Amino acid sequence: MRNHFLNYTAVGIFVAAMIVALVVALSMLSGRTGPTDTYYVELDDVTDVKYGTIVRFAGFPIGQVEKITPVPNEGKYRFRLQLAVQEGWKFPQDSIARIAASSFLAGKTIEVNGGLTSAVIAPGGDIAGGTAADMFSLMAQVAGEIGDLSKSSLKPLVAKISDIIDRIGNTTEVNLKELMTSLNSIAHEVNAKTPIIVGNVETFSSQLNTEMAKVDQLLSEKNIGAVGNSLSNIERATANAEVASKDLRSLGGQITKVADQISALVADNRKGVDKSVADLEYTLRAVAQNIDSITHNLDGTTRNMNEFSRLIRQNPGLLLSGSNPETDKGLSPNSGDEQ
């Protein structure tokens, strides 16, 4: 009797221990082994994500998904995930959470990648959501984008290209006819102008022969002797130039000394030079501000001078009398003479 009691007791203790071990194992697998903090993530797509999906930080399990709430946003839906994370776990403010899978056959998890800032997100705050990082989600997204591209861009593009080809085929025949017509007119014009071109070539040949005769006269023995004398003069001029270059080098040395002296003078009087430059800048600014009135006055003066010169040309006597002379009325007939 006592042996049966001991056996049942041992079996009960073993079963209880296995249940406790199972609970601990499930807690370890779910990432919840104690008090938790709540964080939130908003994602555009939560494919294969449900209650109990593991939350990992850099691959380390730290919690699980507690709740998924659809949130309408500008005619679309985003999904707000409530995450239960180990109490005291710190997320940098620039952390990003996204759906990922460690391998092709592995289940989906919420992967949080830590940022670089030292500031952390307070419990109850939001972690920024990113696009899915697993291969299948990316392939599905790319396939959807390719389908949209085919419907919205490729088909209209193909239709437009077909339309352009049809237009090119219709206009090519017309263009070829116009081209042949133009070539025929050009050929007729060339045939008409060919005799004129031949005549111009003959005239050019005769003029060239005349010019060659003049060149022969230019290269006579007398002119060649004159060229020799010129070369001799050039040689003497070269010798004189060499002497002059020596003088120029000495003059250059003197100019360098003078430049050094001027530089020293400018350096000693830099304040005066700066003041002169400032005065010159003020003067130029004043001239620029009043250039419109100056040009207006110059234009009026020019017009007056033109009028004055015109009057002088018409009546030079204005320089002496100062006014236009009276009109010559001519001689009046004498009454006595008429009798």
Please outline what is shown here.
The protein is of the alpha/beta class and about 350 residues long.
Account of the 3D structure:
With 339 residues, the chain is of the alpha/beta class. It is 63% helix and 15% strand. A 7-stranded mixed β-barrel has the order 1-4-3-2-6-5-7. Strand 5 and strand 6 form a beta hairpin. The longest helix is centred in the middle third of the chain and has 84 residues, at 135-218. The radius of gyration is 54 Å and the shape is elongated. It starts with a helix and ends with a helix. Residues 335-339 have low confidence and may be disordered.
| Spatial strand sequence of the major β-sheet | 1-4-3-2-6-5-7
Shape: elongated
Secondary-structure-based class equals alpha/beta
Radius of gyration: 54 Å
List keywords for this structure.
single chain, 7 strands, 339 residues
Layout of helices and strands:
Layout: H1 2-30, E1 36-43, E2 54-57, E3 60-73, E4 76-86, E5 96-100, E6 109-113, E7 126-129, H2 135-218, H3 221-268, H4 270-289, H5 291-314, H6 318-321, H7 335-338
Parallel strand pairs: 1-7, 2-6, 5-7
Antiparallel strand pairs: 1-4, 2-3, 3-4, 5-6
